[in-house]
Amino acid sequence: xxxxxxxxxxxxxxxxxxxxxxxxxxxxxxxxxxxxxxxxxxxxxxxxxxxxxxxxxxxxxxxxxxxxxxxxxxxxxxxxxxxxxxxxxxxxxxxxxxxxxxxxxxxxxxxxxxxxxxxxxxxxxxxxxxxxxxxxxxxxxxxxxxxxxxxxxxxxxxxxxxxxxxxxxxxxxxxxxxxxxxxxxxxxxxxxxxxxxxxxxxxxxxxxxxxxxxxxxxxxxxxxxxxxxxxxxxxxxxxxxxxxxxxxxxxxxxxxxxxxxxxxxxxxxxxxxxxxxxxxxxxxxxxxxxxxxxxxxxxxxxxxxxxxxxxxxxxxxxxxxxxxxxxxxxxxxxxxxxxxxxxxxxxxxxxxxxxxxxxxxxxxxxxxxxxxxxxxxxxxxxxxxxxxxxxxxxxxxxxxxxxxxxxxxxxxxxx
Length: 415
What we know:
By secondary structure, this protein is α/β, with parallel strands linked by helices. The protein is built from 12 helices and 15 strands. α1 crosses α9, α3 packs parallel to α4 and α10 (313-335) runs parallel beside α12.
């Protein structure tokens, strides 16, 4: 990965993105990259280039040209591996997040005897819970007994020591911990190295959902020793709605001989086109592939990742992100502390791009504020029961926009 060092301010790449329009045709105040990232200007050209290859080459496009489709899924893999702190062979782009989660649990959730519980956070993103419950049922287990959901404390936050304590007491009954890198509702960033140490001590497999962490905060998946991780790419990675997702499998499973759901794209590429009847998995994460990668949704991902490299990588963007959220938190505490509560932890290592805000007047007052902001071209999002999520993204959001948000909230709450 070639990284260009830069000390530019947040929003340095704003002119490289198409920001959705607000009322009157001006750019909206787009603060929802935690849900769907803005479109890189190069995304359309990247997709159209592959459309044109299809038109000009047809099936030959799989093999000919500078970026044959047989190799296209690897085009930006070095940048992606750098973003998640992994080695190249530990990362693959494929499918969508929950499909990848099922594929990983098929291989790495292997309940035996009393060690059969899955531990996750209470209030996890629903799709994760649906997947976990269905996997337990697939194995003939009872989710009421074999799913342990650790609850937030009174501050509505999860605490790493509570997971450590649970594993200390019940670790011999746990087969898998599934944990987020960033909690989707509160924006809380977790100490994944600490969580990984607790899992290793208890002899428990660790899987991570990095949907809200990848492209947001620095990660070190190889170093901390997570067993597997999954993520989507349409949030902070700006790859477009329902775009292709990603997966990490630690290199200690490079020659994994356990169970997996097999498909021909995960078969050894040197013998794949011999069309043999027996599956021989590729080494590393690519061995979990099922089908040929979707070229047209990979193209905008690679276009976006080029911007990450040009911006100086995740370390440079993280510095700018902390500046944005730090400024937003300061302005809220300065101007709105009696009316707005910040649910997200404010310690730098415990927050990412997202701040989760609560109106002190309660749910109805919060929803009213959200709707008024939306009518004025401020695009955040609402999460039940009472959270407005605002996520200034350093690639395209600015400090001025943070000031505008606070001024609008102040005005609308007084209206």
